[in-house]
Amino acid sequence: MAQPTTLQPTAASTLDAPRTGNWDGGNEPFKASYGKLMMWFFLLSDAFTFGAFLTTYGMIRHKHEVFTGEASAFHFSTKWWPIPDHVFNAFPGMGHANVPLGFVALMTMILIFSSVTMVLAVEAGHRMDKKDVQKWLLWTILFGTIFLLSQAWEWGHFIRGHEEGTLMADGTVFHGANLSMNQYGPVLFADLFFFITGFHGTHVLSGVCLLVWCFIATTNGTFEKRGHYEMIEKIGLYWHFVDLVWVFVFTFFYLV
Amino acid sequence: MSAPVAPDHAVAGEIAKPNTGGIWKIFFVLVAITAVEFAVTFAMEAQSMRTMRNSILIGLTILKAFFIVGEFMHLKHETKGLIWTILVPSVLLVWLLVALVTEGSFIGETLSNMFS
After folding, report:
1. Shortest CA gap B108–chain A (Å)
2. Distance between CA atoms of A237 and A44, rounded to whole angstroms?
3. What interface predicted TM-score (ipTM) does this complex get?
4. Domain, as residue range, for A204
5. Residue range(s) defining the domain that contains residue B7
6. CATH number at residue A125
7. What is the pLDDT of residues A50-107, one digit of tens each?
8. Does A247 touch chain B (CB under 8 A)?
């Protein structure tokens, strides 16, 4: 082997040169750079966190009774788990119109679209096309922000509740939801909604912040000087992961 | 050493044309799967079709995840070692989910039949 495999005392002039030995930084496991590999491992650990949330959701949901009558005869009760399309059926600007899951479908589309613009930014980075990177980053930031605002509206509607409300055990009619009471069903239903969509929303918010930083760095020419746009790829991985989590939340919280 | 080399066609001063056909194809696949998921949710509302409906929905979700992770996150084109490193722990996670959902059903049944 031409290169020394352990750290050797070297002359001052070669100290700054990149190390190429197998054990001092010259080897890339899995042919992926350090940063990308660590991002993959971070995302795996983040998948554990969301996996824990969804596992908790699955277990608690299956512990509760299901509504066994006709879907059209469904009404809210703390006795059984609510049918999601009866809870999430409002659309901004449409008053009391019944649009089951309509707004969630739109939010899903927005997030998938932001994922596509993110891939396009990564692709532009491969071509060292600064203008295109800026363009697609801006689109991704825009769609990410729209998603966050949509979620804020969704939360607002969930917290304020439906017109009819639900008769509680103490004889009062309760509208909306908080952490200890809700009109839709068992207490834990609202708790899990707040925690799961809230944790996902926090991730989207961090993603948007990272993207804004990326846009500033691109504009300043940081990546161009560095000779590669790998940072966009790493943040892209994170952004796709957030989209991936939403795909699962969409199925398990809203559809099933 | 770890700095990735810029692709050959990225000659200084000359920017290559974008090649994005594949990306848009994946996008339309994802939109189509989401539309099917949506249709299935409302077409199979009857109680008797619940298990089948949920199986279809979960299958479609995993298909969507496959496209996002494989193509958008590029995992399909990484080395075998990295693919297994990510996949094996995720499969164990699915196992945990299935185990605790079953446990949940059991707890629910036991609680509601406690005095009968």
Report:
1. 4
2. 11
3. 0.84
4. 45-255
5. 1-77
6. 1.20.120.80
7. 999 999 999 999 999 888 887 778 888 888 999 998 899 889 888 888 888 999 999 9
8. yes
